[in-house]
Give the backbone structure.
Amino acid sequence: MIQRIQTIYLLIVALIAGILPFWINLWSDVEGNEIFARNDVFISGAFYISAVLAIVTIVLFKNRKNQFVLNRLNMILNIFLLGFFVYRSQNLSGEISVSEKGIGMLIPIISIVFLVLANRAIKKDEDLVKSVNRLR
């Protein structure tokens, strides 16, 4: 059913990954230019794929096992994105001039938290359905 709590969690992930990185800067370079997700094709593509995966997962509400797998795939994508941001922030801190890291680097962490909450809710629903099937 689409009115479950995991739908809200996945909708939050879709909004966070699809809209927020394009308004909040990820980091600032030495010259003071703010870098957004739209400035890099890889980063914007990863955020768009994460948002699309969350929306597809919402649509697959009848097949909870596929929802669970797609959420795991989305978590892996966000972990790779987080790893890229950590690598990038390590390169930024090694400069002679001080660069500023933006709050946008925390977006994958927030997405992962909501994806874990959605997976817990999906697992809870799956366990409920299995327990009802045992009673029959």
The longest strand covers residues 27-28.
